[in-house]
Specification:
- With 123 residues, this protein is mostly helical.
- Helices cover 60% and strands 6% of the residues.
- The protein has a single domain, classed as Hypothetical Protein Yqey, Chain: A, domain1, CATH 1.10.1510.
- A two-stranded antiparallel sheet has the order 1-2.
- 16% of the residues are buried.
Length: 123
């Protein structure tokens, strides 16, 4: 499913509407989760010190000045995005094994279907 000329993130974004229209819940859930994990990995950590910190009894640790709180998101390369999606798949497979051990076959099957949906993008 993953065309080598299309970046993985874009392939996930392109596949989401189709999964939604097809009412493919495992694929939809897995794709949304993978995209969210990518977005979370791009988040910038909050700096707790800097020249623009306000000191006030009303605003603790606030920033002062226009744009002082703005920060560019991190840019992940394709290799890092691949690692994130692989980790999402692996987490689902590990959880499915635990569910299966506990005798919860339906939950295990759902997680395995989600892992298979992500696996289609990793091939």
């Amino acid at each position: 499913m993953n065309d080598s000329t299309v970046p993985l993130r874009q392939a996930l974004r392109d596949a989401l509407p189709g999964a939604m229209k097809a009412r493919d819940t495992p694929a939809r859930t897995a794709i949304r989760s993978a995209l969210a994990a990518i977005e979370n990995a791009e988040a910038v950590t909050v700096e707790t010190s800097g020249p623009n910190l306000a000191t006030s009894e009303h605003v603790a640790g606030g920033t002062v000045g226009v744009g002082a709180a703005e920060a560019s998101r991190l840019e992940l390369d394709d290799e890092r995005i691949l690692e994130i999606v692989s980790a999402e798949r692996d987490e689902r497979l590990a959880a499915a094994a635990e569910y299966r051990t506990a005798g919860r076959e339906a939950e295990a099957a759902t997680l395995e279907a989600e892992a298979a949906a992500l696996d289609a993008f990793l091939c």
